[in-house]
Design goal:
Order of helices and strands: EHEEEEEEHEEEEEEEEE
Distance between the termini: 37 Å
Largest sheet: 12 strands, mixed
Oligomer: single chain
Number of helices: 2
CATH architecture: Beta Barrel
CATH superfamily: Acetoacetate decarboxylase-like
Number of strands: 16
CATH class: Mainly Beta
Strand content: over 45%
Number of domains: 1
Helix content: under 10%
Structural class: mainly beta
Radius of gyration: 16 Å
Length: 215
């Protein structure tokens, strides 16, 4: 078993996040039964792609790509459901699975002056085309999410700050061969750049089991 640091983790670096509408049927297929998908528009959920790189001030220095098909509700708690998540550090993978119940997989992250590419076994999962963003403003962040170990549902909220700015020239693209393409076809718009990102991710709390009805 790969050793990983205990929670909480401190994550310091930068990230790009983009939101899009996801077909409600596709979102429900990506979310476990027992979690209620929040549908802010008829027939759609809110999907998010998040790409980050965390530097040496972090608990672990690594990169990650997170796919969120929907925000969900269960027993009075709201959080993002992470259907796929890729990292490039085995310790991060182990910690994500063992501590937070997140389905972390290993992938390769290639960064260049015009953005990033994420690959797994030679297959492109996602590309992010970036350009300098305008000067942003410092904002607080609260990022609630669910995890799952067996039938035990977990809930946690990452909290911190970042300098946020719209990045009008940035875009996420999931090729047709990517496992993300069914949820996130085509290119995203309205990408936010989070500079000087600092997050603290605590250990999760128990949030019931998915064998229970979501009250």
């Amino acid at each position: 078993m790969t050793d990983s640091p205990p929670a909480p983790w401190r994550l310091v670096g930068e990230a790009w996040a983009a939101a899009t509408l996801v077909d409600l049927g596709a979102a429900r297929r990506a979310v476990p039964a027992g979690l209620r998908v929040i549908s802010p528009w008829p027939g759609c959920s809110l999907g998010i792609l998040y790409l980050a790189r965390y530097g040496p001030e972090s608990t672990l220095s690594y990169h990650e790509l997170i796919a969120i098909p929907a925000l969900c509700w269960h027993a009075g708690r709201v959080g993002a459901w992470v259907s796929r998540i890729w990292v490039d550090d085995p310790r991060s993978q182990a910690g994500g699975r063992e501590i937070w119940g997140l389905p972390k997989e290993l992938a390769c992250f290639q960064w260049g002056p015009e953005g990033a590419r994420v690959l797994q076994d030679g297959r492109v999962l996602c590309e992010m085309r970036a350009a300098p963003a305008p000067r942003g403003i410092r904002v607080p962040l609260a990022l609630p999410a669910f995890g799952l170990r067996g039938s035990s549902l977990l809930h946690f909220t990452g909290r911190g700050t970042a300098t946020a700015a719209w990045a009008p020239s940035a875009a996420f693209i999931a090729p047709r061969s990517s496992p993300l393409a069914g949820l996130f076809p085509g290119a995203f718009g309205r990408t936010v750049h989070l500079a000087d990102l600092s997050l603290r991710v605590p250990a999760p709390v128990a949030a019931g089991t998915l064998d229970e009805a979501p009250l």
